[in-house]
Amino acid sequence: MHSTDHSQFLISDEQFFLQAVETELAASCQWIKELSVQSAEILIEALTESTLAGKKLRPLCLLAGYALGHDKTDEQGWKRLVKMGAALEFFQASALIHDDLIDHSLLRRGRPTTHIRGTQVASERKYPNPSDFGVGLAILAGDLALGTAYQLAAESFLDHPQQNAGNFAFHRMCTRVNIGQFLDLQAEALPLDEHFTSQIPEEVISYKTAGYSVIDPVKLGALLANLSPEKCDKIADALAPWGLAFQLRDDQLGAFALASQTGKTSGSDLLEGKRTVLLATALSLGSDEQKAKIQALFAQSKRSEQDIKLIQELLTQSGAKSELEKRIARLYSLGQEQLESLNLPSDQLSKLGDALINREK
């Protein structure tokens, strides 16, 4: 429970914090709705829906980062945390909307993706070129979410001792994700020959997901707790193995998880032809016959449900699936050791790390 003394808020009260972030998200969407007009309702709906139902892992990482410096905060500190938590959610919404568009994804969190929903609305309204409308809606909704994220992040660090460092850290995060998105786009055009190694998808992970999923939210929380930028950089370095492990878990889920687990199409990474560490590992460990089958299946412009099942079998038979699990375990242990070496109160972060990496959705 949060403290009965309303001037103090316990950092360990995760549910109370997430409720506050949800309220901030709703308030921001309402403000944009009031600024808008009735005819732009579908745009506001797309923005609002993009922030619903997520796991809220990044706000939890933010809170755990703050806990590295303090176990409680005053009302002003709490408001800063809540605004940054909402900023991270809006930024993720922006990234996912645009990522789904680039990947031609059909589902996100069990619902039609923004561009698909836009196409459906345009068809219902008998607009010309419905798919173009859907693409435009996704671009604009993603941009709107990004602008809102920047505004909330700036408010979070306004007049804070670490204002410059905080604003730079947030902007650096956003910039690296966009670079990573391009690297991902480029990687998917590469042939699966001897030049495709795990180094390529790991570079994508370093830029696109490891930072903004785990490392940067923790760092931003630590900066809000007024830890020095130098200390925060050491924390970020210590968490690098967890950032990679987080995405490797996503690779595993993207290849093997059911739609009911992830809210995305089953085998979504395989359908989209994602160049992942799991795929690179299979090509490295597999027999010549297994590699040839994988290469042929990924060379197809589309893959059927039967193709997906065959790829899943090949990923397992090659030893890639089990090797990925072993590597995730090694990375988790390494991150834990590095975090402990900093001599910080990391119990809350360690608990969260287990949930981040050993998850099923």
Q: How many domains in all?
A: 2
Structural class: mainly alpha
For the record, what CATH class of the largest domain applies? Mainly Alpha
Strand content: under 5%
Pfam family, one: polyprenyl_synt
Keywords: Magnesium, Metal-binding, Transferase
InterPro entries: Isoprenoid_synthase_dom_sf, Polyprenyl_synt, Polyprenyl_synt_CS
Cofactor: Mg(2+)
What structural keywords apply?
361 residues, Farnesyl Diphosphate Synthase, disordered N terminus, 2 domains, mainly alpha, two-stranded antiparallel ribbon, single chain
Explain this structure to me?
With 361 residues, the protein is mainly alpha-helical. It has 17 helices and 4 strands. The chain folds into 2 domains: 149 residues, Farnesyl Diphosphate Synthase, CATH 1.10.600.10; 154 residues, Farnesyl Diphosphate Synthase, CATH 1.10.600.10. β3 and β4 form a beta hairpin. α1 runs antiparallel to α2, α4 runs antiparallel to α9 and α13 packs across α16. The chain starts with 8 loop residues before the first strand and ends with a helix. The N terminus is likely disordered. One of its GO terms (molecular function) is metal ion binding. Keywords: Magnesium, Metal-binding, Transferase. It holds the Pfam family polyprenyl_synt.
How is the secondary structure organized here?
Blueprint: E1 9-10, H1 14-35, H2 41-50, H3 57-67, E2 72-73, H4 75-103, E3 107-108, E4 111-112, H5 114-124, H6 130-156, H7 163-187, H8 199-208, H9 210-224, H10 229-256, H11 259-262, H12 268-271, H13 277-285, H14 288-299, H15 305-317, H16 320-340, H17 347-357
Antiparallel strand pairs: 1-2, 3-4
Helix pairs in contact: 1-2, 1-4, 2-6, 3-4, 3-9, 3-17, 4-6, 4-7, 4-9, 5-6, 7-8, 7-9, 9-10, 10-16, 13-16, 14-15
